[in-house]
From TrEMBL:
It comes from the Bacteria. Residues 410-429 are annotated as: Disordered. This is Phospholipase D family protein. Residues 176-203, 429-456 form the PLD phosphodiesterase domain. The lineage of its organism: Bacteria, Pseudomonadati, Pseudomonadota, Betaproteobacteria, Rhodocyclales. Pfam families: PLDc_2. PROSITE patterns: PLD, PROKAR_LIPOPROTEIN.
């Protein structure tokens, strides 16, 4: 028995060694990054004559009437945000540049893939840049797309082990812990969509489990051109690899077209297809009747060298989005309203907000409650700074998990005044905040991918637009004044130092002495996470 036990241990040891060596070999190095044309046709969007595109001809007169400014339209309604992307792809004549952190293989994901495919079939040069951490299950689809002569797919900071994705983090954590969180959708270098939404049912109001409260903007003119320049910087960066070098190449057009047809035929997709028929905003953009808000815009974006760990707080801060954002804006003088789903300000951020309050600036922050948060560890990081923020005079609000259904379209508050309120497509039973926006003095507004947390500041790459427009910024301020009390808990500090969550209901004020909607096990888990040294990753 002893001899057999020793032999068994030796066999297990040998198996472990083989597996471990295989893992190291798989992650030993990424393939050579071959230089390819800027687009599948060798055509740069920056060289396209606007007069040769429908979008260019549509926006040029308004741009001439507003020199140096961009036209902006807020997309707070989830179904409209979905339709806007698909219809913008349909309006493209020459180029499409698409960059995302998450792309789901669900209804909206495949309808969006089909929109890119149809554009390529018309001769549009399509570039798709995806962060590779969320592409599980999509390799076959990406291979088929990449095989199209007018589509090029690149994977950002890719994983080499496709079937055991978590093992990549075991062997190459320091590299893979940096992700591309940018989100943009740009047609013909003339119109772009920038904001907080990824591609997936939960972002477009059709998930049955959760609906993300989010915000994007369509922007024209200088804003679109700046996004194109940023896209090319990422497309040609050292972290962007041609998909074929990671997942191989295969022209499986037939299987992909069958998947498109199956998606369209499914009754669950009918809601999305109806939203395409109902949404007029891209047609209005082409007809020059879309009610754009005009103002100067500044794109703030991380240098992709951040992914390689080459930038930090002390060296290269001017190339980090956080530093660029501070340079792009002047400090608020009267008011600062912040909406962020993942709020881990750290000591520096907490002091910055406290300093604003000391300077007589009213600071209001909306983030997720424990019940509405989709990342418990981040809530644990936020909870550590809650009392310090309240003691400094910052006003804190936490989103309720269950929201009034008819006002869900107003999340973000930057919708034009005449936009009707609409129900979301899916009728999900719970909500989670995902918008990343802030307004200053009712004059400027930021919309983008940047969360007010340590991960956005130092690990992931981010992007967003600072927009000088009092109507857009004022709508966010008004939303905090009028609509927020019904949608969020007001967190206050009581005389004994404990926290209280105040809820406004139809029957009056309700006060909670524990995090609303959470049980003791969840609260205990948050408490445990709060003592772990993980804030730098949150």
């Amino acid at each position: 028995m002893a001899i057999r036990g020793v032999q068994g241990m030796g066999s297990l040891r040998n198996i472990f060694v083989v597996v471990w060596v295989g893992m190291l070999a798989a992650c030993a190095g990424l393939p050579p990054r071959d230089e390819l044309p800027v687009t599948p046709q060798g055509l740069s969007p920056t060289t396209v004559d606007p007069a040769t595109t429908r979008l260019g001809r549509a926006v040029t007169p308004d741009l001439a009437a507003h020199p140096g400014q961009a036209g902006v339209y807020a997309l707070s309604d989830a179904s409209e945000a979905f339709a806007a992307r698909v219809l913008l792809a349909g309006a493209a004549d020459r180029t499409l540049d698409v960059q995302y952190y998450i792309w789901r293989g669900d209804y909206t994901g495949y309808l969006m893939f089909e929109a890119l495919w149809q554009a390529a079939e018309r001769g549009v040069s399509v570039r798709l840049l995806l962060d590779d951490t969320n592409t599980a299950g999509l390799d076959d689809t990406l291979r088929a797309l990449d095989a199209h002569p007018n589509i090029a797919v690149r994977l950002y900071n890719p994983m080499t082990m496709r079937s055991a994705r978590l093992l990549n983090f075991v062997t190459d954590f320091s590299r893979l812990n940096h992700r591309m969180h940018n989100k943009s959708f740009t047609a013909d270098n003339q119109a772009t969509i920038v904001g907080g939404r990824n591609i997936g049912d939960e972002y477009f109001g059709a998930s049955k489990s959760v609906g993300f409260e989010d915000l994007d903007v369509i922007a024209t003119g200088p804003a679109a051109k700046d996004v194109t320049v940023s896209f090319e910087e990422y497309w040609n960066s050292a972290s962007a690899y041609p998909a074929a070098s990671i997942i191989g190449s295969e022209d499986s057009r037939k299987a992909l077209l069958e998947r498109f047809a199956e998606t369209r035929a499914d009754e669950g997709a009918e809601q999305y297809l109806q939203s395409l028929r109902d949404t007029k905003l891209v047609r209005e953009l082409l007809a020059q009747t879309l009610p754009l808000r005009w103002g100067e815009t500044r794109l703030v974006v991380d240098d992709p060298a951040k992914t390689l760990g080459q930038l930090n707080a002390n060296e290269g801060r001017e190339r980090l989005m956080l530093g660029r954002l501070m340079t792009a804006i002047t400090p608020p003088q009267k008011s600062f309203e912040l909406i962020t789903p993942y709020f881990v300000p750290g000591k520096e951020g907490t002091e910055s907000l406290a300093a604003l309050v000391r300077n007589k600036v009213r600071v209001r922050v909306l983030t997720n409650s424990l019940a509405s948060s989709d990342v418990t560890a981040v809530h644990a990081g936020y909870a550590e700074y809650r009392k310090a923020l309240l003691q400094a005079g910052v006003e804190l609000y936490e989103l309720k998990r269950h929201l009034p259904p008819l006002v869900a379209a107003e999340a973000g508050g930057a919708a034009p005044e005449d936009k009707p309120k609409r129900k979301t497509l899916g009728g999900s039973s719970s909500a989670s905040l995902h918008a990343k926006t802030f307004a200053m003095d009712g004059q400027r507004i930021f919309v983008g991918s940047f969360n007010f947390d340590q991960r956005s500041a130092w690990l992931n790459t981010e992007m967003g637009l600072v927009i000088d427009n009092a109507q857009l910024a004022g709508r966010l301020t008004d939303w905090f004044d009028k609509d927020l009390p019904a949608r969020a808990y007001h967190v206050v500090l009581q005389d004994d130092g404990s926290l209280c969550w105040i809820e406004q209901t139809e029957k009056g004020e309700v006060r909670h002495d524990k995090e609303p909607g959470s049980g003791p096990m969840l609260r205990g888990w948050v408490k445990f996470l709060s003592i772990l040294p993980i804030e730098w990753m949150l």
